[in-house]
Amino acid sequence: MLRTEKSTIRDDELFIERVFQAPVSLVWRLWEEPQHMIRWWGPEGFTATDLKVDFRVGGKWEIGMISEAYPKKWSQGEFRKIEKDRRLEFSFAWADGSGPPTETIVIVELIPEGGGTRQTFHQAPFASVEDRDSHILGWQSLFNKQQAYAEKPS
Questions:
Q1: DSSP readout, 62-84?
Q2: Tell me: the pLDDT tens digits for 100-153?
Q3: In the chain, which residue ranges form alpha helices assigned H by DSSP?
Q4: Could you give the CA distance from residue 102 to residue 149 in angstroms, rounded to a whole number?
Q5: How many CB atoms lie within 10 A of CB 65?
């Protein structure tokens, strides 16, 4: 499930909600453990090729991804808050001019729901509505990959 409620958020914010048929502890590990993150990060059609993660408050992350249609794109940031199995906050920026120049803050929250997990994703502030809108399809597509990875049979 995806929700982008423009009526309840500002023009400089992005909000996406997804429900996974997987426990919170598993969805958390997809964010925490590099060997999982590299398998789903990036929109559909992109493959993550390089990943550096220092998963601690103040730790940096950087990821490179490629596709047949685009050269390698790099994104990076720093972890600001980590509450295991509950909440993750990090900065996000495109490196080397491969995307909009604005640094944003991402907040991911995981909420138990039945036997699954509701993941909320909030990103702000964007410099313009156009910058925000340029991220919507990419994140939705990335979460498609994350969901398929989380829900794949063991």
A1: EEEEEESSS--EEEEEEEEEEET
A2: 677 999 999 999 999 999 999 999 999 888 888 888 999 999 999 999 999 987
A3: 24-32, 34-40, 129-151
A4: 29
A5: 22
